[in-house]
Specification:
Blueprint: H1 3-14, E1 23-27, H2 32-48, E2 53-60, H3 67-81, E3 84-89, H4 92-99, H5 103-122, E4 126-128, H6 133-146, H7 150-153, E5 159-162, E6 165-171, H8 179-189, H9 206-221, H10 226-255, E7 256-259, E8 262-269, H11 270-274, H12 278-291, H13 301-309, E9 318-322, E10 326-331, E11 334-338
Parallel strand pairs: 1-2, 1-4, 2-3, 4-6
Antiparallel strand pairs: 5-6, 7-8, 8-11, 9-10, 10-11
């Protein structure tokens, strides 16, 4: 694809995600994908007079000896473009030990928190990430192999609230491009990038095995367009999920109400809920849990099924403890879903419901 076509496709994608005049922090690691994001948006901003106020946030995870050089490269790139750059540092290994998380999860949490700081400092409401179609395909396949539902099958959302600061919007305008297209674009413009040494190695990490082993085999022996097939599957799942959520929100209004003056809990009529199709019951439960701040990435299929099962049976008292301090308890015909330490939440406030944790 030539530069003009690239810029047109990026504009069509970005204008749906980023309002005119918006202040936008681009998350730039120095790798090809994020460099293409920054340089592409900067050019589109110029061509189409979007009047975006672009700045850059770079997070040094301190996981690689070369990370300092990455930061210096990003600072130099920003200087050449006349874009302000904020460099943040995080001790991801320490954070992982403190929180009992994997390195990947701790890195994501640190990255989101520090990018939120960059956005606050820049007066920005939008953070742009460089995930592309190949990342989307890898995410969907990873979730299929790990076990997932309709939400997980839909992959990464093009736009969603930032988990670390839900008043900030995380957008992914590059989901319409392949990894190869981004590198070809930079090469055509004579723009360099940093290579992450870990990206070129096939190791025990699941994501790397999918990227370097499973997908190449699928591409060569099963379907040369496997990336497109997975992305299409994800989009169809997202559309189906959106429809399911709309029905669930409407149904919830008929079977549930806030529990007294406590906005952080709901009282559900169990028998009325049980009359709904099981898929709608499950979606109702997920929407309620998300609105209460439950740890959605830790709620798997078995827990969702257990929640739905609360609506059945003879009303015997049962209680389920969930991540984030959330609980669900059945007494007679009433299921109470709550989080006693929070207040001021309402079902459906976040729009499309919970997201499975993204990369």
């Amino acid at each position: 694809m030539d530069e003009r076509t690239f810029h047109h496709r990026l504009y069509e994608s970005a204008r749906r995600l980023i309002p005119p005049h918006a202040a936008v922090v681009c998350a730039v690691s120095g790798g090809a994908d994020s460099v293409a994001l920054l340089c592409g948006l900067e050019k589109v901003n110029e061509i189409h007079a979007c009047r975006w106020r672009l700045s850059v946030g770079h997070v040094d995870h301190r996981l690689r000896p070369e990370s300092g050089e990455d930061a210096r490269f990003v600072e130099g790139l920003c200087a050449s473009l006349g874009v302000s750059c904020s460099v943040k540092s995080a001790d991801v290994r320490h954070a992982a030990r403190e929180r009992g998380e994997s390195i990947e999860t701790a890195a994501r949490h640190c990255r989101h928190a520090l990018l939120a700081e960059c956005a606050r400092a820049a007066g920005a409401s939008v953070i742009a990430m460089a995930h592309h179609a190949d990342d989307q395909a890898e995410t969907i396949l990873h979730r299929i192999l790990r076990g997932t539902g309709l939400r997980g099958l839909s992959g990464m959302a093009a736009a969603r609230p930032l988990p670390a600061a839900r008043d900030l919007r995380l957008v992914r305008p590059l989901l319409v491009f392949s990894r190869e297209a981004l590198r070809a674009y930079l090469t055509a413009r004579g723009i360099g990038w940093r290579e992450d040494a870990s990206n070129g190695q096939s190791d025990a990490a699941t994501r790397n095995r999918i990227r370097h082993d499973l997908l190449p085999v699928a591409r060569s022996e099963v379907n040369p367009r496997v990336t497109e097939a997975l992305v299409q599957l994800g989009e169809q799942a997202r559309q189906a999920g959106d429809a399911l959520r709309r029905f669930a929100v409407e149904s919830w209004a008929e079977v549930a109400e806030p529990a007294g003056d406590e906005a952080a809990s709901f009282r559900v009529r169990a028998r009325a809920l049980a009359m709904l199709p099981r898929a709608i019951q499950a979606e109702c439960m997920l929407l309620a849990l998300e609105s209460l701040g439950a740890g959605m990435g830790e709620i798997g299929h078995e827990r969702v099924e257990a929640l739905v099962d609360l609506a059945g049976g003879d009303g015997t008292r049962r209680r389920i403890e969930l991540p984030g301090g959330v609980f669900a308890e059945r007494r007679g015909d009433v299921i109470t879903i709550g989080k006693e330490s929070d207040a001021g939440v309402a079902l459906g406030r976040s729009g499309k419901g919970a997201e499975v944790a993204d990369p």
